Sequence to fold (479 residues):
Amino acid sequence: MELTRALLKEINGTLSLNVGSGDDLRVPMADPSIDTRTLKQGDTFFGIRSEERDGCDYFEDAASKGARVIILNNTHRERFEKSDAVKRSGAIGVFVANTRIALKQIGFYNRLRHSIPFVAITGSNGKTTTKELISAILSKKFRVFKNEGNYNNDLGLPMELMKLNERHEVGVVELGMSALHEIENLASLVLPKIGVITCVGPAHIEFLKTLKNIAKAKAELIPKVDTQGCVILNFDNNHTRKMASLFSGKIVGFAISNRSAKMRATRLEMNEDGFYEYWCEVKANGRTYDPFMVSLPLPGKHNVLNSLAAISVGLEFGIASGVIAEAVASFGGVKKRMELVKLKSGVSVLNDCYNANPLSMRSAIETVSEMPGAGRKVAVVGDMLELGSWSVRAHREIGQIASKCGIDLLITVGEKAAHIMNSAVEAGMKSEMVMHFDNSEQTARAINSIVRKGDLVLIKGSRRMKLENVFDAMRGEQK
Fold:
């Protein structure tokens, strides 16, 4: 993308004095950055104000590291013009009333320049895995644009949209949120042809207070979907199934259990690796299509549901069922999300340490309990955060689930996770089958003396618990 007079007009921006006044302004805007620590030569730097600091104050650091275009609030214009560091670098300054708003405007401006269909995914769990599965399927026929990593919020998504270019034929993005109106605003940036809602559960309930509010927040995607497209919903989840009435266009429901869904997984069988194989049955346009078999290289029934959502998208784009099945079977998974790793020590790890909430924690524990293997089933589980008044109850319920599922050894990490341990013992788990550590560092130092060859170990907790320390220690990479 380029900095042009038209773009300047769109964001109501003005240029620094080192730029001429001609109409032929065409300055390349390379990858956007809001952090000078990771900024690369040629990047476009946005000075973003946060609660802790004003990113505009770092413009000289950005200039010295090679930023080509630097976008700042009007308040910093005089300092920018007088800066020797800026003069030496030759960086171009753009000044706006609010850099956060300008970033969104630029991302949307670039999205409008490319008239390609977008798929937008949200939900309490499974967004990233579903996004990656959809991308893997669509890439069999199209050149796919997708937002990387956790760039799914009001800053990350417009930054990613700035990378959209003429080579892309379809876009796939996940939308995150922790409050009402966030999904609505993010979906407005991409104008999706297809919307996917994976599920509703008590993630971020500290901020939204009730499951009803969480469902309301996720459903904000639906009015932003093109009525000539479709909305794809998890019919095994009560909250998402009820959203079907909110859309006047085509609805595709996917499910394992609910027979009213147009897309169903039937005859599920677990292979020797603990992965499911199933038959995909599709009903659409008044007729039933020939079932086709899917081998999913991911553990857990919740991932079967994620794959059904992705398959639904593939069929909407006209991709043949055999091609879709091939794409799913060759899917490489997502790091730190139900990632099955077999270590040289003979221990298998189900690494799901990226994040956790009550719904995903329950699914992970049930998954590890169902997977084959003669060794022990070990669960290393940390605090689940952002639960507010639900916290104690949610952690205690996980303890009951761990006991019910027959986990052989339960290791809890963190102050809140102590409720998991206590509840598991109260539910019948023997005291010698539970251990507790205050943090991930303590757990990492002890873990290799606890686990043994043949064990299957689940590692899961909220992001701030840093349970990747435990995984690194098991791989011999402890710092």
Observations:
- The two ends are 41 Å apart (CA to CA).
- The chain has three domains: 2-99, 114-329, 339-474.
